């Protein structure tokens, strides 16, 4: 999944000369929190709802900025950006590391979109969510060559279609695989998997 | 009034498939052996047009072609030809026979009948544009639509262990249909949906209710949330009729799912549903069958339903001759009594935690839904 698959486009921007009042009104109207600041097609900075509130509040520990009237006086100038072909996880890592809420997306110096924390949550939902009627299997695999292939091979052999597959490393030398399959009969699959030597965590065995 | 015909058993995915017509044969022969079977009303099969009241033309075309044994390249896209819902000759008509039964139930309700028990159907996974999870055509939605087109407001109650997704999505934006599904959480079980946040769209907002339950939920906890939720929702919605999908797969013996109801809970549920129909739905209630993959448990649960539906006293032991016949046919022992014996499964250590989680889910659901439902 790439940044271009999750970013919002086209992106709403403002010029540097716009007043804080106008910019804030725009944020409220559109229900957004980030505005890239652009002049002559070039990204100059970014301003957030929080920047504006701090600049106009006596609660700001550095004091309000009474003279500040225009976006360019308050915006962050060193903007961290992404490229449309960056992997989503890289965008997530940068945002998490820098503790920032959005990345303007630039291509050849031109702003083509924006990716925010909300877009990353959407991506997480797409990766883990249920988009087709399906049952769920959870299997703990030894972390070595061919184990996942053995699992998917078993499912293919049973004529079962895999709608989604998520895997992540676990403590020790294990990988947890969560598989959504197009069948009600996950208990039957689990039984078959156990008989073939897999450690199935869900569905459980019923001893009665 | 009971609706049934032997052609229901044409809906048959093969000897290895869990949705087996043998269950109907066992059930009707048990009721005969108990001496309570009365001639049911044989319904006509539903027409193509009636099926099209809730399904797409392109789905129906594919079911018809597959029924004739024609090769259809994109069958799987329509949820057909899969391990769960394989095609078989005559599938279209077999499915229409089941739809016809439930639809006849709706007609009878409109004609003034109060209680109808359709001994088949309950194919709640079938969607507008796709077959799914053993379900080709959605008999419940065809019946519900017939009722709403006649101007009735319909409450649909689904106690199958799987989420009633097909019925929910078909009526998702309709304000005259309340759907209420109690099921094992989609986090663990097919079809994966049925979260409390799925609560309808547009005019249907707040009228699609889902109570996903923890795996290993037992009688006490199930009944606690059921008795809190169902009368509350029905009183707020005030339906003109109640349609009930009485799947039996929340039983602890069911091989496909993980809830732990006993026949005692089912007896209480059926009694309550009949009471609620009187109190909140003008006495009008249409029951269908549904899932249930332990033949032993399923047949006893539906026999219970049949007795309670008719107000008959419950037999304790099952007839010897019937037991012998079916133990021989199935090649395994059956429970000798209508109710489960005590101690059918071991104690569940997480019991209090499970009950607490279910209570919390109920609370979330009522908080989400009440602003929409209660006016």
What does this structure look like?
The complex is a heterodimer of chains A (208) and B (375). Chain A is α+β, with helices and mostly antiparallel strands. Chain A folds into two domains: 3-125, CBS-domain; 129-202, Alpha-Beta Plaits (2-Layer Sandwich), CATH 3.30.70.260. Chain A has eight helices and eight strands. Chain A has helices spanning 3-6, 20-30, 49-55, 71-74, 88-98, 117-128, 147-157, 186-195, and strands at residues 34-39, 42-48, 102-107, 110-116, 135-142, 162-170, 174-181, 199-202. In chain A, strands 6-7-5-8 form a four-stranded antiparallel sheet, covered by helices on one side. A two-stranded antiparallel ribbon of chain A has the order 1-2. Chain A has a two-stranded antiparallel ribbon with strand order 3-4. Chain B has 375 residues and is α/β, with parallel strands linked by helices. Chain B has a single domain (2-373), classed as Arginase, Chain A (3-Layer(aba) Sandwich), CATH 3.40.800.20. Chain B has helices at 22-33, 48-51, 57-67, 91-110, 139-149, 165-170, 219-237, 263-280, 295-310, 320-330, 351-373, and strands at 2-3, 115-118, 154-158, 177-184, 208-213, 241-245, 285-288. In chain B, helix 7 (219-237) packs parallel to helix 11 and helix 8 runs parallel beside helix 9 (295-310). The radius of gyration of chain B is 19 Å and the shape is globular. The mean pLDDT of chain B is 97.
